[in-house]
Structure formats: structure tokens, C-alpha cells
Amino acid sequence: MSLDNQPQLNVQTKPVEPLVEGGAQIQQVLNIECLTDFSDAPLLNIKFRYGGALQNLTLKLPVTINKFFQPTEMTSHDFFQRWKQLSQPQQEAQKIFKANHGMDTEVLKAKLLGLGSALLDDVDPNPENYVCAGVIQTKGQQVGCLLRLEPNSQAQMYRLTLRCSKDSVSKRLCELLAEQF
To answer: 134 and which of 35, 45, 69, 109 could share a cystine (Cβ 3.0–4.6 Å)?
Structure first.
């Protein structure tokens, strides 16, 4: 077993037995540290023999940049003050898109909480909107991220806006999140 070279991540594994009996299972624990922001999920290569022939499986690990989020609680005043500070065009990524799934409030909240950031209540002047805040922790830096999701139930559309202190993170998170809704 090996991981494709991904210099943005430090991956540590514990050794496992080289032989697995038929029908048996083993668990391989991976400890992943984010060194800097990244866009592509790491690939896990598994090589084994079956019936004497060498087999090779490549699996995409479900590791995305949001897995390194630390939720950040803040007041409405603090949120919009920071929102204004992140005003450089390259710090913002925005996407308007049709809802892929229903627009159920509880499902939306669960998806936003699953992102890893803090879902902030009573922050946006429009009670239909959702706002989140968090910091992506990497070994080299902390990347502050603010999110605003504006649903339009009549049109079954969303406007998703992300502002982050690092532009590549804004764009990547916006793409990643738009797929979820």
C-alpha cells in the first residue's frame, strides 16, 4: 500500500501484516496532516496477489480541504466586519446554481455543519440565509473562511459566496460545496 506523492499532505501509516487470509479483514489507520492547502484528493494505491496474479487498485481517499476546518463562533458584527476585510476580488468565490436536492432547512443545516465550520445563527439580516465561519488549520498557516449561502426557494436556486484569506481556498471550497447542494 502506498499513497501518491502529495507534498501538501503528510501521511503516516501504521504497518500491517503482509499476508491477509481469504475472507479476513485488516484495518489500516492513516494519520493525515495538512501542510498547505490542496485541491486534489490523495490517491491510495493497493497492490496484492490474487490467484498468483498481481492486482493493483487505486482509490481516491475522501480527504478534502474542509476536513481541516476548526469552527469559529462570532457575532453578527464580527462576521460582517471580517467579511468586509476580505474584500479583495481574489479572496471571494461565488457560484449561483440550481438545487441538486431538496431545500429542506434541517438537511441544509446538517450539510453545513458537516463542512466543519461553525453555523452561525441570527447573524445575517435575512433569516433565510445561512452563514458559517471557520479556520482551516495547516502546518504552515491558518486560513480564515467565511461562507454565506442564500437560498431562493421559488427558483430552487442558491447563491454561495465564500471569502477566505487565501484565494485558492475560496475557489476550491466553493466548487466542493456547490456539489453538496
So the answer is: 69
